[in-house]
């Protein structure tokens, strides 16, 4: 039956519900609701089609490198057969990180040709330093590596340079000017580093921390975090140390280091307390800044390169047929 609604539109009612002249059809309201739903769907489809035709927004641009705080990576190194291999691997990781300054410190009286050439070819912004470890602090023949801390003089020489005390033998010789935003990280030459780690540490305000893999006789060692705060440490060896952290497990803001001129590594610190000898001058454990997803991700590993076996080389040398010493390895 044909009906007219309030807008004089013909509405066909499929049901025998016409109640007579002047009486409204009781199914007119559902029909209006259905028509409104169709109209809304058509409108939404039109909006989606318009969105598809619209060009996508430009991706967010990362900050310009000049706007980023500088990461100062301090690496002690010493002469041995695998030194170049270790430094090449590390330098190529560091080359992936923007706004980075490499402080490479040799355990030597002066710069060696091997390290000087490697730095010059690296393409990195670098400062080359050198200081010889005193004889009393050097490992004696047959002593295991853990008996005496290594790299102490070299790390302290890098701190001296950052504090405008000179000592650079090549590369960038001027220390960062006052007010420079930056962070200092102590990266040994034999560890393995994820590029992500450096972005985790870049915005450190005081001292930031994270886990380190394959260290301390464990799968990993590092801070325990609850509600965004460090509440303890996952470690098996001397857990009561002030800061039971590996050297690779923390970074320090440059302004904090410069504000604490007496903060240094202590070569006489008991075994395993070298990190604590520095950090105890800088921060309380409760104020450590957890990184790497609240210390649930491992982004650095305490790897060690196997000492090469050179028996055949020694045999050939005795015969006068050893490898050409002019070829740098």
Automatic annotation (TrEMBL):
Molecular-function GO terms, alphabetical: galactosylgalactosylxylosylprotein 3-beta-glucuronosyltransferase activity; metal ion binding
Q: Which Pfam families match?
A: Glyco_transf_43
Basic and acidic residues biased stretches: 305-316
Q: What is its EC number?
A: 2.4.1.135
Annotated residues that bind Mn(2+) are located at 190
One GO cellular component term: Golgi membrane
The protein's UniProt keywords, in alphabetical order, are: Disulfide bond, Glycoprotein, Golgi apparatus, Manganese, Membrane, Metal-binding, Signal-anchor, Transferase, Transmembrane, Transmembrane helix
The superkingdom listed in its UniProt entry is Eukaryota
This chain belongs to which protein, by name? Galactosylgalactosylxylosylprotein 3-beta-glucuronosyltransferase
The species this protein belongs to is Tursiops truncatus
């Amino acid at each position: 039956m044909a009906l007219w609604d309030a807008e004089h539109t013909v509405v066909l009612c499929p049901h025998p519900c016409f109640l007579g002249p002047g009486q409204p059809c009781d199914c007119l309201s559902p029909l209006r609701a259905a028509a409104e739903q169709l109209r809304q769907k058509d409108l939404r489809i039109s909006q989606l089609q318009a969105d598809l035709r619209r060009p996508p927004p430009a991706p967010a641009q990362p900050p310009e490198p000049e706007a980023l705080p500088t990461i100062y990576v301090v690496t002690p190194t010493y002469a041995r057969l695998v030194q170049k291999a270790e430094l090449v691997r590390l330098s190529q990781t560091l080359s992936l990180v923007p706004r980075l300054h490499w402080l490479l410190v040799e355990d030597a009286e002066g710069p060696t040709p091997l390290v000087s050439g490697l730095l010059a070819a690296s393409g990195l912004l670098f400062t080359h330093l050198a200081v010889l470890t005193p004889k009393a602090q050097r490992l004696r023949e047959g002593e295991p590596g853990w008996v005496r801390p290594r790299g102490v003089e070299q790390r302290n020489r890098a701190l001296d340079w950052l504090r405008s005390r000179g000592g650079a033998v090549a590369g960038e010789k001027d220390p960062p000017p006052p007010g420079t935003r930056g962070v200092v990280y102590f990266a040994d030459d034999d560890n393995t580093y994820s590029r992500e780690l450096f972005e985790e540490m870049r915005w450190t305000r005081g001292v930031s921390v994270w886990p380190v893999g394959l260290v301390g006789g464990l799968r990993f060692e590092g801070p325990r975090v609850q509600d965004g705060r460090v509440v303890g440490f996952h470690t098996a060896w001397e857990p009561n140390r002030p800061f039971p952290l590996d050297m690779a497990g923390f970074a320090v803001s440059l302004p904090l280091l410069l504000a604490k001129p007496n903060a240094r590594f202590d070569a006489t610190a008991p075994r395993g307390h070298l990190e604590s000898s520095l950090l105890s001058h800088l921060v309380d454990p409760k104020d450590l800044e957890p990184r790497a997803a609240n210390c649930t991700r491992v982004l650095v590993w305490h790897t060690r390169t196997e000492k090469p076996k050179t028996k055949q080389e020694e045999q050939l040398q005795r015969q006068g047929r050893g490898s050409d010493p002019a070829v740098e390895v």
